[in-house]
Amino acid sequence: MEKEIKNISFTVIENGIQTPVVTRHGSYPNLMYLLKEELQLESFGECGGAGRCATCLVTTKSVTGASLIKERNEPNTLEQLGYTDQATRLSCQIYITADLNDAEITILEI
């Protein structure tokens, strides 16, 4: 039996403007690539997803599951910038999964 493909819907806020996003699991390597392409953001994600430059900084609300876990370079990069709260993330470290369904992602300026 073929697995049903479901849409993942969430809201992105950039400069106070809310944009609904609908995508599918694995449609992009990570959230950074989706945001860069869908919102055509310049100077966003300059290190290409290595979790080092923090040019893809976001806050998250209502993200669930494994997407809450900060791994690889993300904790150190955020700590160096003084971000210690759970909601501040590097979008390059968040995969496109059902964990994002109904979430709110706010793009931060650094």
From TrEMBL:
<feature type="domain" description="2Fe-2S ferredoxin-type">
    <location>
        <begin position="35"/>
        <end position="97"/>
    </location>
</feature>
<dbReference type="InterPro" id="IPR012675">
    <property type="entry name" value="Beta-grasp_dom_sf"/>
</dbReference>
<dbReference type="Pfam" id="PF00111">
    <property type="entry name" value="Fer2"/>
</dbReference>
<dbReference type="InterPro" id="IPR001041">
    <property type="entry name" value="2Fe-2S_ferredoxin-type"/>
</dbReference>
<protein>
    <submittedName>
        <fullName>2Fe-2S iron-sulfur cluster-binding protein</fullName>
    </submittedName>
</protein>
<dbReference type="InterPro" id="IPR036010">
    <property type="entry name" value="2Fe-2S_ferredoxin-like_sf"/>
</dbReference>
